[in-house]
Design brief:
Elements (H helix, E strand, L loop, with lengths): L2 H9 L3 H6 L5 H26 L7 E12 L7 E6 L5 E5 L7 E4 L5 E3 L8 E4 L1 H6 L9 E4 L4 E12 L4 E2 L17 E2 H10 L7 H4 L5
Antiparallel strand pairs: 1-8, 2-7, 3-6, 3-8, 4-5, 4-7, 9-10
InterPro entries: IPNS-like_FE2OG_OXY (IPR044861), IPNS-like_sf (IPR027443), Iron_ascorbate_oxido_reductase (IPR050231), Oxoglu/Fe-dep_dioxygenase_dom (IPR005123)
Protein name: Fe2OG dioxygenase domain-containing protein
Keywords: Iron, Metal-binding, Oxidoreductase, Signal
Amino acid sequence: MNLYHLILLLLKHSLLFLITFKPLLATDREVIEEYIQAIQKLGIDIVSKMFGDYSSQVCVTHFRMNKYNITQDSLSSDGIAFHTDASLITILQDDDHLGGLEVVNPSGKLVPVDRLPGSLFVILGDIALLRSNGRFRNVQHKVECKDVGVRLSIATFITPSINEDIEVHPKFIDVDHPPKYVPFKYEELRRLRASNQFHCGEVIELLRCKN
């Protein structure tokens, strides 16, 4: 049993089982621990390829499981509204059976993401844009309720530590490309997003250098 099928079973009964781990068999717990370790390693590998050896810096991993009970009445509504993630990257294991994930492509058009059972999607967040001096794009995305049923997904957020000093990575700076964004702490970014109710990357402009 892989983690995805294990979580399908647990979520259909109670999230309390997953939170406490008490009712889980040792083998089930091992599956979850192995998945967490594998996803963390994958996340660090991806970030290191984007920014060089990032593994020497602290990366924090957050997991979130989403469950949507989609009924006839909720069809065409948003399960999760438009947003960007505050993370470096988000690794998403989406539902194998019910679609609904939509992203804004580089031309600004909203496009549905085809289901690819057993695949992982990597979504770049606000920190990826800021660290890359705007080279990478933070991806606006949402989930629309398109089919009746129970829709499940697992999101893994790779983020800096809360007090880490964040600035444009040197590999993205040269004579023709000076830093576009001021140094800041991850905690500050989260505070600005929350206090201004920014959801779709608007916080980026508050961190832009005033030349």
